[in-house]
What we know:
Blueprint lengths: L5 E7 L2 E6 L4 E5 H6 L7 E2 L4 E2 L11 E6 L3 E6 L4 E5 H4 L4 H8 L15 E4 H6 L1 H13 L2 E5 L5 H10 L12 E3 L15 E4 L11 E10 L6 E5 H11 L1 H9 L2 E7 L2 E7 L2 E3 L6 E4 L14 H19 L5 E3 L6 E5 L3 E5 L5 E9 L1 H10 L5
Parallel strand pairs: 9-10
Antiparallel strand pairs: 1-2, 2-3, 4-5, 6-7, 7-8, 10-20, 11-22, 12-21, 13-20, 13-22, 14-19, 14-21, 15-16, 17-18
Bound molecules: N-trimethyllysine, 2-oxoglutaric acid and fe (ii) ion.
Amino acid sequence: MTKATIAGALAVDTALDVLFGDGNSIRFEDCWLRDHCRCSSCYHSDTFQRANHILEIPDATILNIESNETQIDVEWSDNHKSTYTAEFLSKFDYKTWKESKRLKPVLWHGDISDKIAKVHVDEFLKSVDGAKHVFQSLLDYGVALIEGVGVSEEATEEVCKALGGVQHTIFGGMWKFTTRADHADTAYTNLPLAAHNDNTYFTEAAGLQILHCLEHTNGTGGETILVDGFYGANQLKQELPEDFKFLTTFNVEAEYIEEGHHHTYSAPVIRVDNDTGDLVQIRFNVYDRAAMAFRNSNDCRSYYRSLRSLAKHYENINNQWRFKLKPGTVMAMDNFRVLHGRTGFSGSRVLCGSYVARSDWLDRARALALIQ
Ligand SMILES: C[N+](C)(C)CCCC[C@H](N)C(=O)O
Ligand SMILES: O=C(O)CCC(=O)C(=O)O
Ligand SMILES: [Fe+2]
């Protein structure tokens, strides 16, 4: 991108029209300008925080402006003076600003083993390029594999920390699970699990789920199933827009119950960004649906019809990627997007892993300059 320059500025009533060197023009309201003054009494540049309460910001008007190619100086009716650089102002064109914040998931179906990142653990932990590769894969496909990891909970924990940090829940921080019923949940059995998102009963579901199969001996099955929740939702939107609409607006309740715990949360199964229409989150889990009452017959029937319409995409074998997790390979997936499951199994199968909060893995991706 070329450096932003100012071609002209014109005060109009209660706003300032700024014309940039590239021909683009942006209107800034005076209340916005005053709030965005970056002088040391308005902004702590060492903490990147505003210095004043919103009620303290004076309702001043613009008295005078002076501009050159690189900045605009504003003199206010209360004698305050502000300077805005071309660089700063140019970032606040609504369209490009909004666009710059959008994630650009690459929708997929079927086997994506040749598309996603498969990065050696040393490269992931010790090099910026390795870390970027993993996080870019999580942003694009919602899946990444980290290979060559020590077959232990400790080695897995190091990876979880680097992915954003271990998130503590009722299941613990780092968890290890097998067929022993440590928690009242089907994950702790050898039964098959159809593709689902975890934590539909939390006010905020885990951002990433990380799984490392430490052992599977004396048995068969236990294949991992992954499916892109956004791909299925998008297919539904095209084929049955009414069902899609219903799932974006109707609150489906989920719950998790065990001794001493009762989590419940009610929200749409498909969450979209109201401005862009972008898919934000899929909250699909057929097992953890709570028993619900319905306002009327229509809602009740729409619930079953639309959930089944969506489920067909997730259960479609052509949309799923199935593979066997091997000791030494850590899988990380975006629990806001990618559904996971497993086939039933026999023998001794031990997995460990953790959740990572969405805020924390996106923080890492932002620190690596992969997103804004
Ligand atoms: C991952 N871990 C083994 C800790 C627990 C799984 C929780 C399972 C729960 N039914 C859900 O889908 O959220
Ligand atoms: O056993 C597996 O591979 C996954 C089980 C599961 O769904 C979970 O732990 O959340
Ligand atoms: Fe799960």
